[in-house]
Amino acid sequence: MSRNHRTAVYIILAAGLTGAVLSGQATDSTAQAQVALPPLHDPLNSPLDPALERVDDGLGDRLGSRIERRAREMEEKAEELPVDDAAEQTGTTLDDDATDAVQSLDESIDAVVDTAGSAAGQVVQDASGVVSPALRPFALAADPAGWPVEQDMLVVLLDEQQLESLSRQGLEIVARHELPSLGLTMATVRKAAGVTLPQTILDVRAALPDVAVDFNHIYRYAADVGTDPEAADGHVVSGDDGSPTAAAGMRVGMIDSAVMAEHFSLRDSAIVSEDLVTHEGTRPLGHGTAVASLIARSANDEAKIYSASVFFQTAGHAPGATTESLVAALDWLVSEKVDVINMSLAGPGNALLERAVAAITTTAEESPVIVAAVGNNGPSGEPLYPAAYQDVIGVTAVDREERIFRYANRGDHVDFAALGVDLKVADNGAGWRIESGTSMASPHVAVVVARMLHLEGMAHDALISALTASAEDLGREGFDPVFGHGLITAPPLLVSGQ
Predict the structure, then answer these.
(1) Please, what is the Cα angle at 126 between 123 and 129, to 5 degrees?
(2) What pTM value is reported for the model?
(3) Using one digit for the tens of pLDDT, what is the confidence trace for 107-117?
(4) Which of the four, 19, 67, 438, 460, has the lowest number of CB atoms within 10 Å?
């Protein structure tokens, strides 16, 4: 057999092995990485797709490079093989060397595939920010005060050393989020068998007094929105030409449900979305789409909107957002350098949420201001959070006659009022609907704040004084627990208008 014939045998063997790898092991590696992604009916995982594509591209490049190199080595080895006159001896020599070369090539390709598989898993982990990338099922329970929480779970803000101490207490760490913008680490922990969740929290606080530990509370919309099983379908909401519309400068963050990307009321807005839900279930669209439309309208489409999707919905339960997701959303929005964060949601006080809010509101001038709806539990309802936290601007709702929304919470944490009754808002069915609640009032105040900070260059410490001076005093003279410092005038958001 000639040297050229021997070389052809090696190349054919290499090509056959390459096809087997590309159709078998490489595919399995990618599939393994994709196990961590949300189900098909929940397409908000799109931020992970580019990362996985990069893994696929990298896998192909590395396989191709490794195989070409091994083929060259085999060709050189073939040229060095002795050409025996006896066909039997030639065949034996060729078979032995070919077997060794192919085995070496096989081992090299396996190594590449294993490395690529590990890289794919790491990309999923890095993109999600969670040690356990798979979405987990949700089970509802209640804390001692009756607030809804995730069953058997608690959340903790801590550092690496404290995390190791937590593990030694026999607690299962279900997920871990790095929060670089807040300078914190958040761990989600499952309680040990035979110990109640309240007792587990007390034990952790006793062992690690410096950490923030609490229930994984559930927060609700501060407006009445019905069941909405639709799922959002995009990472970036684009203009009609398929590319994000350029923003004029203001950067408004919102922590809410997902936003309907294609609603025509948002066609002139640039909206960047991030899914921060860690549970299985659908991603409701109605509330977030309504809030986004109010932000866009109040800003005259001059703001870039950063939408943190935190609400999920499972069968038999109203949409909810966990403390875990709220804290992660705050960290993401700080990293995006937004001017203001609107939170049209409300719930109980929580040690982690309080610490995360404090980490933002007590830092440098460039940190965002947080605006939140005070909630709709009525005049005698207890204060709701995050609006009731110090340095968060709490907003209540009034109608066009400047009368207070009858379900609005009241108290010293009410800072300002804005129009929030019978507003025309974008509906996730692509049309419009009428909505009321403190959720609908706070977006306008958030835009006013963003405009004052970004376009007018106002310092944070002068903001409240300037808002108070410009507000229309309602109710009794001066500050009161119903209207706060007064009405922040809104553009005409009339049912029959825009």
Answers:
(1) 145
(2) 0.71
(3) 544 444 343 33
(4) 19
Q: Which residues of 26-57 are buried (b: 16+ CB within 10 A; e: fewer)?
A: beebbeebeebbbeeebbbbbebeebbeebbe
CB–CB of 438/375 below 8 Å?
yes
Please state, in angstroms and rounded to a whole number, the distance separating the CA atoms of residues 102 and 142: 62
Looking at residue 213, its pLDDT comes to: 97
Q: Return the amino acid letter for 123.
A: V
Phi then psi for residue 172, to 5 deg, are: -85, 120
Q: For strand 212-221 and strand 184-190, is the pairing parallel, antiparallel, or unpaired?
A: unpaired
pLDDT, position 5: 44
Query: Considering the chain, what is the average pLDDT of its residues?
Result: 76
Q: Which amino acid would we find at residue 427?
A: D
The SS3 assignment for 399 reads coil
Q: Which positions ≥6 away from 252 have C-beta within 8 Å?
A: 295, 299, 303, 304, 305, 306, 338, 339, 340, 342, 446, 447, 450
Kind plus residue range of the DSSP H or E element containing 468:
helix 460-470
Inform me whether the pLDDT recorded for 447 exceeds 90.
yes
pLDDT at 129: 34
Angstrom distance (rounded) from CA 272 to CA 307 = 6
Strand positions, DSSP E, 101-199: 140-142, 148-158, 172-179, 184-190
Residue with tokens 């936290």: 389
Beta strands in 276-320 (DSSP E): 303-309
Residue in 28, 102, 105 with CA at minimum distance from that of residue 65: 105
Residue with tokens 């004052």: 452
Q: How far is 52 from 379, CA to CA, in rounded Å?
A: 51
Question: Quick check: 275 pLDDT over 80?
Answer: yes
Judged on CB neighbours under 10 Å (0-12, 13-18, 19+), 176 is: middle
